[in-house]
Amino acid sequence: MAIRFVTGNAGKVREAREYLSGIEPVEQVEYDYTEVQSDSLSEIAAHGAREAFEELGHNEPVLVDDAGLFVDALEGFPGPYSAYVEDTVGVERLWRLAETDENRRAHFRTALAYADEDGTETFEGSVAGTLVAPRGEGGFGYDPIFEYNGQTMAEMSTEEKNAISHRGRALERFAEWYAERGE
Ligand code: ITT
Q: Is 171 exposed, middle or buried (0-12, 13-18, 19+ CB in 10 A)?
Protein backbone atom coordinates (compact mmCIF):
# COMPACT_ATOMS: atom_id res chain seq x y z
CA MET A 1 0.00 0.00 0.00
CA ALA A 2 1.32 3.44 -0.90
CA ILE A 3 1.03 6.53 1.28
CA ARG A 4 -0.25 9.61 -0.51
CA PHE A 5 1.86 12.60 0.49
CA VAL A 6 -0.35 15.61 -0.15
CA THR A 7 2.00 18.46 -0.99
CA GLY A 8 3.15 20.71 -3.80
CA ASN A 9 6.69 20.60 -2.42
CA ALA A 10 8.95 18.07 -4.16
CA GLY A 11 11.68 18.59 -1.54
CA LYS A 12 9.43 17.27 1.24
CA VAL A 13 8.58 14.23 -0.90
CA ARG A 14 12.25 13.49 -1.59
CA GLU A 15 12.99 13.49 2.14
CA ALA A 16 9.97 11.33 3.06
CA ARG A 17 10.82 8.84 0.31
CA GLU A 18 14.40 8.57 1.46
CA TYR A 19 13.35 8.03 5.06
CA LEU A 20 10.46 5.65 4.40
CA SER A 21 12.16 3.54 1.71
CA GLY A 22 11.74 -0.07 2.73
CA ILE A 23 8.68 0.83 4.82
CA GLU A 24 6.07 2.13 2.36
CA PRO A 25 6.18 3.69 -1.10
CA VAL A 26 5.38 7.42 -1.09
CA GLU A 27 3.30 8.91 -3.87
CA GLN A 28 3.03 12.68 -4.31
CA VAL A 29 -0.51 14.02 -4.66
CA GLU A 30 -1.32 17.67 -5.22
CA TYR A 31 -4.48 18.79 -3.50
CA ASP A 32 -5.17 22.23 -2.12
CA TYR A 33 -6.55 21.49 1.35
CA THR A 34 -7.79 24.31 3.57
CA GLU A 35 -4.98 25.73 5.70
CA VAL A 36 -6.72 26.74 8.93
CA GLN A 37 -5.40 29.85 10.66
CA SER A 38 -3.54 28.60 13.69
CA ASP A 39 -0.28 28.96 15.57
CA SER A 40 -0.20 25.19 15.88
CA LEU A 41 1.43 23.39 12.95
CA SER A 42 -0.11 20.12 14.19
CA GLU A 43 -3.58 21.56 14.07
CA ILE A 44 -3.04 22.85 10.52
CA ALA A 45 -1.57 19.52 9.35
CA ALA A 46 -4.23 17.38 11.07
CA HIS A 47 -7.05 19.41 9.61
CA GLY A 48 -5.48 19.25 6.14
CA ALA A 49 -4.87 15.50 6.33
CA ARG A 50 -8.43 14.77 7.42
CA GLU A 51 -9.88 16.92 4.65
CA ALA A 52 -7.59 15.43 1.99
CA PHE A 53 -8.42 11.89 3.10
CA GLU A 54 -12.16 12.59 2.88
CA GLU A 55 -11.93 14.39 -0.45
CA LEU A 56 -9.42 12.18 -2.25
CA GLY A 57 -11.08 8.91 -1.32
CA HIS A 58 -10.43 6.33 1.33
CA ASN A 59 -8.39 3.88 -0.75
CA GLU A 60 -4.99 4.86 0.66
CA PRO A 61 -3.79 6.81 3.71
CA VAL A 62 -2.55 10.38 3.40
CA LEU A 63 0.31 12.37 4.92
CA VAL A 64 0.41 16.16 5.24
CA ASP A 65 3.45 18.13 6.41
CA ASP A 66 3.16 21.65 7.73
CA ALA A 67 6.48 23.28 8.45
CA GLY A 68 7.99 26.61 9.35
CA LEU A 69 11.12 28.52 10.26
CA PHE A 70 10.95 30.26 13.64
CA VAL A 71 13.54 33.02 14.14
CA ASP A 72 14.18 33.69 17.83
CA ALA A 73 15.13 37.36 17.43
CA LEU A 74 11.95 37.93 15.40
CA GLU A 75 9.67 36.41 18.03
CA GLY A 76 9.25 33.24 15.99
CA PHE A 77 8.48 34.99 12.68
CA PRO A 78 7.82 33.78 9.96
CA GLY A 79 6.62 30.58 11.73
CA PRO A 80 3.32 29.33 10.29
CA TYR A 81 3.59 32.04 7.59
CA SER A 82 6.92 30.76 6.26
CA ALA A 83 5.60 29.75 2.84
CA TYR A 84 4.02 33.15 2.28
CA VAL A 85 7.16 34.95 3.42
CA GLU A 86 9.38 32.81 1.16
CA ASP A 87 7.16 33.70 -1.82
CA THR A 88 7.00 37.41 -1.01
CA VAL A 89 10.05 38.60 0.97
CA GLY A 90 12.30 35.70 -0.07
CA VAL A 91 15.02 33.79 1.75
CA GLU A 92 17.85 36.27 1.05
CA ARG A 93 15.91 39.23 2.47
CA LEU A 94 14.79 37.27 5.51
CA TRP A 95 18.48 36.62 6.17
CA ARG A 96 19.21 40.37 5.88
CA LEU A 97 16.50 41.06 8.43
CA ALA A 98 17.89 38.44 10.84
CA GLU A 99 21.48 39.57 10.24
CA THR A 100 20.87 42.89 11.99
CA ASP A 101 20.38 41.10 15.32
CA GLU A 102 23.13 39.55 17.42
CA ASN A 103 20.96 36.56 18.24
CA ARG A 104 20.97 34.39 15.10
CA ARG A 105 19.28 31.38 16.63
CA ALA A 106 16.34 29.80 14.82
CA HIS A 107 14.30 26.61 14.82
CA PHE A 108 12.76 24.60 12.06
CA ARG A 109 9.60 22.83 13.09
CA THR A 110 7.35 20.45 11.26
CA ALA A 111 4.15 18.60 12.00
CA LEU A 112 3.33 15.50 10.00
CA ALA A 113 -0.27 14.36 10.02
CA TYR A 114 -1.28 10.88 8.92
CA ALA A 115 -4.93 10.12 8.21
CA ASP A 116 -6.69 6.88 7.41
CA GLU A 117 -9.96 5.11 8.29
CA ASP A 118 -8.96 4.81 11.93
CA GLY A 119 -8.36 8.52 12.46
CA THR A 120 -5.60 11.12 12.38
CA GLU A 121 -2.25 11.10 14.17
CA THR A 122 0.33 13.88 14.32
CA PHE A 123 4.09 13.71 14.77
CA GLU A 124 6.26 16.75 15.45
CA GLY A 125 9.92 17.38 14.94
CA SER A 126 12.16 20.38 15.49
CA VAL A 127 15.80 21.34 15.17
CA ALA A 128 17.73 24.34 16.48
CA GLY A 129 20.33 26.05 14.31
CA THR A 130 21.98 29.33 13.40
CA LEU A 131 21.06 31.66 10.58
CA VAL A 132 23.90 32.43 8.17
CA ALA A 133 24.39 34.07 4.75
CA PRO A 134 23.09 31.66 2.07
CA ARG A 135 25.37 28.69 1.22
CA GLY A 136 24.83 25.44 -0.66
CA GLU A 137 22.89 24.14 -3.63
CA GLY A 138 20.92 21.25 -2.11
CA GLY A 139 17.71 21.08 -0.12
CA PHE A 140 14.98 23.65 -0.64
CA GLY A 141 13.32 26.69 0.91
CA TYR A 142 15.24 28.19 3.81
CA ASP A 143 17.92 25.46 3.84
CA PRO A 144 20.73 27.72 2.48
CA ILE A 145 20.49 30.08 5.49
CA PHE A 146 20.05 27.44 8.23
CA GLU A 147 23.29 26.13 9.66
CA TYR A 148 23.62 23.08 11.90
CA ASN A 149 27.01 21.91 13.15
CA GLY A 150 28.93 24.06 10.67
CA GLN A 151 26.97 23.02 7.58
CA THR A 152 23.90 24.62 6.08
CA MET A 153 21.08 22.22 5.32
CA ALA A 154 21.59 23.07 1.64
CA GLU A 155 25.14 21.66 1.95
CA MET A 156 23.87 18.29 3.21
CA SER A 157 22.71 15.24 1.28
CA THR A 158 19.08 14.22 1.79
CA GLU A 159 20.25 11.46 4.10
CA GLU A 160 22.43 13.81 6.17
CA LYS A 161 19.63 16.33 6.46
CA ASN A 162 17.13 13.63 7.51
CA ALA A 163 19.50 12.46 10.24
CA ILE A 164 19.26 15.80 12.05
CA SER A 165 16.31 17.73 10.64
CA HIS A 166 12.86 18.58 11.98
CA ARG A 167 11.32 16.47 9.20
CA GLY A 168 13.69 13.56 9.85
CA ARG A 169 12.65 13.56 13.53
CA ALA A 170 8.96 13.71 12.71
CA LEU A 171 9.41 10.91 10.14
CA GLU A 172 11.23 8.84 12.74
CA ARG A 173 8.34 9.22 15.20
CA PHE A 174 5.86 8.41 12.48
CA ALA A 175 7.81 5.32 11.34
CA GLU A 176 8.00 4.01 14.92
CA TRP A 177 4.28 4.44 15.46
CA TYR A 178 3.51 2.94 12.04
CA ALA A 179 5.62 -0.15 12.73
CA GLU A 180 4.11 -0.74 16.19
CA ARG A 181 0.62 -0.37 14.85
CA GLY A 182 1.23 -2.97 12.14
CA GLU A 183 2.35 -5.61 14.65
P1 ITT B 1 2.87 22.26 0.92
O2 ITT B 1 2.06 23.15 1.84
O3 ITT B 1 2.26 22.06 -0.42
O4 ITT B 1 3.26 20.96 1.59
P5 ITT B 1 4.86 24.34 1.19
O6 ITT B 1 6.24 24.49 0.66
O7 ITT B 1 3.90 25.48 0.98
O8 ITT B 1 4.26 22.98 0.62
P9 ITT B 1 4.65 24.71 4.09
O10 ITT B 1 3.34 25.40 4.10
O11 ITT B 1 4.90 23.69 5.13
O12 ITT B 1 4.95 23.97 2.71
O13 ITT B 1 5.74 25.83 4.03
C14 ITT B 1 6.72 26.02 4.88
C15 ITT B 1 7.74 26.97 4.32
O16 ITT B 1 8.95 26.59 4.93
C17 ITT B 1 7.98 26.92 2.81
O18 ITT B 1 8.44 28.17 2.40
C19 ITT B 1 9.05 25.86 2.67
O20 ITT B 1 9.89 26.08 1.55
C21 ITT B 1 9.83 26.07 3.96
N22 ITT B 1 10.34 24.79 4.45
C23 ITT B 1 9.61 23.73 4.90
N24 ITT B 1 10.41 22.71 5.23
C25 ITT B 1 11.66 23.14 4.99
C26 ITT B 1 12.92 22.54 5.09
O27 ITT B 1 13.07 21.29 5.48
N28 ITT B 1 13.98 23.27 4.74
C29 ITT B 1 13.86 24.54 4.31
N30 ITT B 1 12.72 25.17 4.16
C31 ITT B 1 11.61 24.48 4.50
A: buried
The tens digit of pLDDT for each residue in 88-105 reads: 999 999 999 999 999 999
- pTM across the whole model: 0.96
Q: With DSSP H G I counted as helix, E B as strand and the rest as coil, what are the percentages for the chain, rounded to 5?
A: 45, 25, 30
Q: Which of 69, 70, 95, 160 to mutate to test the pocket of ligand 1 (most atoms within 8 A of CB)?
A: 69
pLDDT in tens, 14-32: 999 999 999 999 999 999 9
Q: How many domains are contained in the chain?
A: 1
Residue nearest to atom 28 of ligand 1 (CA): 143
What CATH number has the domain bearing residue 45?
A: 3.90.950.10
Range of the domain at 31: 3-181
The rounded Å distance from CA 27 to ligand 1 centre is 18
Classified as helix, coil or strand, 128 is strand
